[in-house]
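note to self — DONT lose this again. spent like an hour looking for the file last time. sequence + predicted structure for the chain T wanted, 305 res
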Amino acid sequence: MSTFPQGWFVVAWSRELGPEGVMPLRYFGRDLVLFRTEQGPAVLDAFCPHLGAHLGHGGCVEGNAIKCPFHAWRFNAAGECVDIPYATKVPKQATLRPWPVVERNGAIFVWHCEQGSEPGWEVPTITEYGTEEWTPWRDNCLNAVKTHPREIVENVADSAHFPVVHRTEVSHFENRYEDHKATQITHGVAKPPQGGTDSFQIEATYFGPAFQISHMQGVLESILLLAHTPIDEGHLDLRFAVSLERTGPRTEQFAEFYAENLRLGFHEDIQIWENKVFRERPRICEGDGPIGRLRTWYRQFYERG
């Protein structure tokens, strides 16, 4: 079994990569470079095939190519060397691995598959994103969380941890699985870390193993994008962004408060994730959620390709 699952992974927020921007990345145990050309964002393996310079450290974008900081070789988004300023012929093997990239919903997604297969599904569009009726994303990134992505995904099926970890009373809990999608439907009453209570209904869907879109109705209606991308076998970056439906002049202020409650809530989970072990054969009891069904669904992202 490969180390990392197959699917779409968020590697940056769109706002982080300006025109002609260049960012070094470290994901899936590999060094990558993210850059924005005139045609949009692109991701390549980072080390120049010439003498090994990292394109993300000192490289710059010219038109639709990134230029190596060492000898000015230029590579397009397909990983092809398109120019060597001091040579009349480009070596055939002067290429870099390109990674499929989609920019959507204010985030930049990369398709990861160890076998190199093409994307198996599309990143859905959040129709509310960027409209006047909804606040801009309040986005966060919690770096180098010491856990495996499967630990986060298992929250889909783990109803019993909500009252213990998050002080949330659950009155209805349901899971649905369909192809690459896993959906959790939850009704209950939450007690956020900063106080108060909120009666809520959530429909949260994973699209593959690495990102989830949640629609929540409570004090206000909100949308949450949650994404986790493995750095190596034991660490990941956890990103989340929230948008609230505008209902009055105080919505923006409440959005900041709401985003901070989410951040504190994730830290409650992180305290558990970073100090636990993964049980391949857990002792499940009556009252636990459908953890076995969730694990069966999750395994498909290792078996395809």
